[in-house]
C-alpha cells in the first residue's frame, strides 16, 4: 500500500510539474501575450489535465511574477515595461558580480575551461538559438555557485522575464551575440586566473554593455512604447 501511494503521489507531482512547464513555456515564448487573460477551461483542454494541476501551476507562476490572479476577473499574463526591464538589470548588477567575487572560487575549473572553449568558437555566432542557450546556461551556472537559495530563486524569476523580453523584441542580433561572447571570454579568463575581483568587475561591465545594447536595439525597432 505504501508503495502504491508513493507511486500515485509521484505521478501527481509529475503531472503538476509538466502542466506548470507547459504554461510557463507558452508565457516565456509569448505565445500567451503580456496583458492577455488566460481561460482555465482552455488551459485544461490544451494541457489535457483537470483544473487542479492547472490551478496549482497558475499559483506557482503567480509567485514567479509571470501571471496575476485577479479576483472576479481571472488570470492575466503579467505585462512587461521599460521600468521592469530596468529593474531586472539593476538586480543583475547587484547579484552576479557579488556571486563571482564571493563564491567564484567554488566554480569547477573543468567547467570553466569548457565554457571558455565554447565561447572561443566563432561558429556559435551563426546559430542564434545556440548562442542564446549558451548565454543563459553560462549565467545560470555562475548563479548556481551561490549557496544562498533566496538569491537563486530570485534570479530565476528575473531570468524568466529576460527571456520574455528577448522573445517579444527579437533581440538577438549577431552584433549583440559577438559582444557577449567577447565579454564572456574576459570574465572566464579572470576566473581561470583566480582573479575574482577582476572577474566581478568584468561581469558588471558585461551586464552594463548588455543593457545598453538591448535598449538601443529595442528602441530601434520602435518597441519601447509597446512593452
UniProtKB/TrEMBL annotation:
Keywords: DNA-binding, Transcription, Transcription regulation. InterPro entries: GntR_C, TF_FadR/GntR_C, Tscrpt_reg_HTH_GntR, WH-like_DNA-bd_sf, WH_DNA-bd_sf. Transmembrane segments: none annotated. It comes from the Bacteria. Gene3D superfamilies: GntR ligand-binding domain-like, Winged helix-like DNA-binding domain superfamily/Winged helix DNA-binding domain. The keyword Transcription applies. Residues 13-80 form the HTH gntR-type domain. SMART domains: FCD (SM00895), HTH_GNTR (SM00345). This is GntR family transcriptional regulator. It comes from Hungatella hominis.
Amino acid at each position: 500500500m505504501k508503495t502504491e501511494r508513493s507511486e500515485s503521489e509521484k505521478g501527481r507531482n509529475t503531472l503538476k510539474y509538466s502542466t506548470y512547464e507547459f504554461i510557463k513555456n507558452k508565457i516565456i515564448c509569448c505565445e500567451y501575450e503580456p496583458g492577455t487573460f488566460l481561460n482555465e477551461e482552455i488551459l485544461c483542454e490544451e494541457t489535457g489535465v483537470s483544473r487542479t494541476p492547472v490551478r496549482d501551476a497558475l499559483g506557482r507562476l503567480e509567485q514567479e511574477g509571470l501571471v496575476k490572479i485577479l479576483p472576479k476577473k481571472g488570470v492575466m499574463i503579467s505585462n512587461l515595461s521599460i521600468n521592469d526591464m530596468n529593474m531586472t538589470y539593476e538586480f543583475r548588477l547587484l547579484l552576479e558580480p557579488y556571486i563571482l567575487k564571493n563564491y567564484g572560487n567554488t566554480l569547477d575549473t573543468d567547467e570553466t575551461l569548457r565554457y571558455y572553449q565554447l565561447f572561443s568558437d566563432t561558429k556559435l555566432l551563426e546559430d542564434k538559438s545556440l548562442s542564446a542557450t549558451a548565454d543563459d546556461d553560462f549565467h545560470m551556472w555562475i548563479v548556481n555557485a551561490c549557496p544562498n537559495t533566496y538569491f537563486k530563486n530570485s534570479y530565476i524569476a528575473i531570468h524568466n522575464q529576460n527571456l520574455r523580453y528577448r522573445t517579444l523584441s527579437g533581440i538577438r542580433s549577431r552584433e549583440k551575440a559577438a559582444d557577449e561572447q567577447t565579454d564572456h571570454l574576459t570574465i572566464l579568463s579572470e576566473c581561470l586566473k583566480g582573479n575574482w575581483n577582476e572577474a566581478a568587475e568584468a561581469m558588471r561591465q558585461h551586464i552594463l554593455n548588455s543593457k545598453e545594447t538591448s535598449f538601443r536595439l529595442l528602441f530601434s525597432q520602435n518597441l519601447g512604447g509597446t512593452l
